[in-house]
Give the backbone structure.
Amino acid sequence: MPESVAIPHTSSSGGDSEGKSKSADKSSRTRRLKHDVIEAVNELIQDINTCHEQIAEQAVEHIHQNEVILTLGGSKTVLEFLYAAKEKKRSFRVFVAEGAPRYQGHLLAKELVTRGLHTTLITDSAVFAIISRVNMVIVGAHAVMANGGVIVPVGLNMVALAAQKHAVPFVVLAGSHKLCPLYPHNPEVLLNELRSPSELLDFGEFSDCLDFGSGIGSPLLHVVNPAFDYVPPKLVSLFITDTGGHNPSYMYRLIADYYSADDLVVRRRVALGN
Amino acid sequence: MPPQRKGAAARVSEDTEDLTRHPLQAILLADSFATKFRPITLERPKVLLPLVNVPMIDYTLAWLESAGVEEVFVFCCAHSKQVIEYLEKSEWFSQPNFSVVTIESHNSVSAGDALRLIYERNVINGDFVLISGDTVSNMSLTQVIQEHKERRKKDSNAVMTMVIKQSKPSPITHQSRLGTDELFLAIDPQTKQLLFYEEKTDSYRGIIPLDNALLGDNPSICLHNDKQDCYIDICSQEVLSLFTDNFDYQHLRRHFVKGLLVDDIMGYKIFTHEIHSSYAARIDNYRSYDTISKDIIQRWTYPFVPDVMFSGNSATHLEREGMYRASEIEQSRSAHIGPFTVIGKGTKIGNNSNISNSVIGKGCSIGSNVSITGSYIWDSVTIEDGCDIRHAIICDGVVIKSGAALEPGVVLSFKVVIGQQCIVPSYSKVSLYQQPTVEDSDEELEYADNSSGTVDSSITCTVDTLNREMMSETPASQLGPGGVGHVWSICEGAHEEEWRHSVAPIPADKLAEAIQSLEDDLELLNLDGNALSVSGELKSGCNGTDSEDDDVEDSRDDSIIYEKEVEATFLRAVNENIKVPDVILEMNSLRLSYNMTSADCAGAIFYAMMKQALEIPHATAGELRKSAASIIDAWNKLLKFYSKEIDDQIEVIMKFEEMCLESVKEFSPHFSQILHLLYDKDILEEDAILRWADEKKDAEESDKVFVKQSEKLIQWLREASEEED
């Protein structure tokens, strides 16, 4: 389950303008404010819970008979999407790239098999070799940026480039709650999260490379574990959201539905705790 | 009355199936009961020292909170007011579902005392986590606690589970990457029970003595030397009562764990739990400080990293190549900030400065053309233009004037001022406070000498008077013009510790030495191996080497302690004008109690005398010689008493040589004159000198330096002895 995006959502609570008014008559207004905020948050929760179904309903239009689908890592949205297509009696095969270093692809493959789909599991490095046999790439997103670019789990930029080379459509499934009004200026660094390198390497085995007592005292081995990739909008063919399918260049319009004009310029503030 | 503040309410028991459900508790020892971080810990408690700009205790508390601990008892002893104030100011007392209670004590001297006090308070009910306030970890405690509880259900003698982690020690220097000695553990691979635990081993011999019973009782044992003790223990309530019953248990590992392992009667067991993908480490000395800081910068401790706000630290932003930058930094365009550096809030960096692999705190001001490598600079430090800082720790408020250079391994304590163009020698520790005279060298206690050590009082006037007492006139020559602070000297036996436990990487020549001795040892071992024959003789051979092994190990420690004692006694004799026969009595008793030969005694006394001569302020080398001469004059009876045999005298000469090479280099030009003086005073006989010269004939050039210097004297002596014949 992709984590919810913390930073872009700090300033907006559903975008309703009612939630912003403050006036002199405090107690009844604050009670109403509280009520409104709770309602808006509940709506948001509802949206998040139902987005899978709404996206999955559109599966039949996109997946046709005897197709080969490629995905990377594990995304619940993708799982539901593929299952919905199978329910409608489409027969297709799925290639799942494992998604190192967290190997969520393994879990997805297992799920798909329990639901009766033909699945082939490959490593991330084999994607370019396989892509010529694939009809469509379907992936989930972590966040959708204002320009139509996507923040996706690491490795998907490589898949997108491979897909572009072989003219394979790259389809991104994203619930509308993943929209973000930020424009990515320096996405590899600004919006990425470098996690612990222990997901890559066993600390104990490599502890002698990490001995700073000898030599010049600075580490010769640096292990980087970025969690996300940025895919620019020109590599994405189609966005499927709960409101339907859209072009990447259209996504900015949807932001207006969910964010008020005040939110569009989001200043990067200090995150307010967890 | 010790202040106790309860945060959120404790849980009420709900389960009817299990016993009443207790909140998970932890005991955090906010006092390490050691003096490794002096002189910094004279003014601030170790747990409040910043590690990558966040106080150490924050890492521990944040980890405990994320691991699901609900009640923490923070035990404070040294500088307890500062710890409590800090906990109040930060928001640790007001976290929901996480109550922090402080327990204060003023006369505990070890972890054992702390646990006994907590047992008396009777606040622990059930299993608890025992850690010290300088632990950094991101492990999840659920699995360990689960295992521990299950084991206890089956076997009520399983009192403790120790967390260990794989970390290979360096084969050359025989120390772990955290600067602690190589640890030898014997673990039963099926049950994970700990069977043997040894820290200080004599790596020169390469032999560990194991009890036969160990092999007899257990079907399989795994011997490890690549594990690191994380000092995170899941203990049952019995542990507290065990400490109370055995009131001489002081240290957690040296006494408690070893005591339990050796004790057959009660049959208590300790188990281990190995963590693989999580990180846990404790900051033990300066080298651990350096290593763990670098691990944090490399994000092994995620999510407790500088750019994630886990406890009220200021927002830091991660950029390329592991560079962390906080807000409001003023950096000149020509300054070059290298990889793996952390820059704190509000710091200013001037033109053409070069900073790499370092941590810089808040509000620092760094001038132009400054070069900083591998250093840890805390808050509000001013570094003026043209300085060169390598592998140093610089505490709050220090001012380094222009052109100064710090050699690797320097520690500058709070508010020290380094004068212009001053070069601070490597491994020096500079503080505003004078070095407390070390009389008691049994245990390393942070405040055994309470009067001279700590500055822990909330009343400012006491602090001032203490300041005035401690800060006497600074010898201006030591720290450059305008320098303020005292350079602490290194005691004789602690030279090795300096470079092992320092922030600076081990210098190449020491590494080469170590490699050389390693190869020599291997040759020796091979020879030994050939000498030992088949099993029949092996046993007695082993036993022999084992006991010798112990002796060598013990005697090395003992001789260092002995030398310190002799020095202290001699100083006292000088200060209090004790008569020579009385001093001889005292020296004799020391010698007997430490089982040293009179040669050792003579050597130690001579060293003490020379050091005393050095202490007398001298302007020129001639004056130094005169003061050395006068001291030898005054105490020659004492020295003579112990150097009656030729061997003793040769020992004195060799000790002098060693001194001139290593510690008291000022004496080296005067070697031959002092030798002559000793001869004149009949302390050394000519035979001794001649035999010493002869022995050195086959030695290497570097050893013969002093022989060469004393050529003339030896020549004259030979002629004199020939004349007599």
About this structure: The radius of gyration of chain A is 21 Å. Residues 9 and 180 of chain A are 8 Å apart (CA to CA).
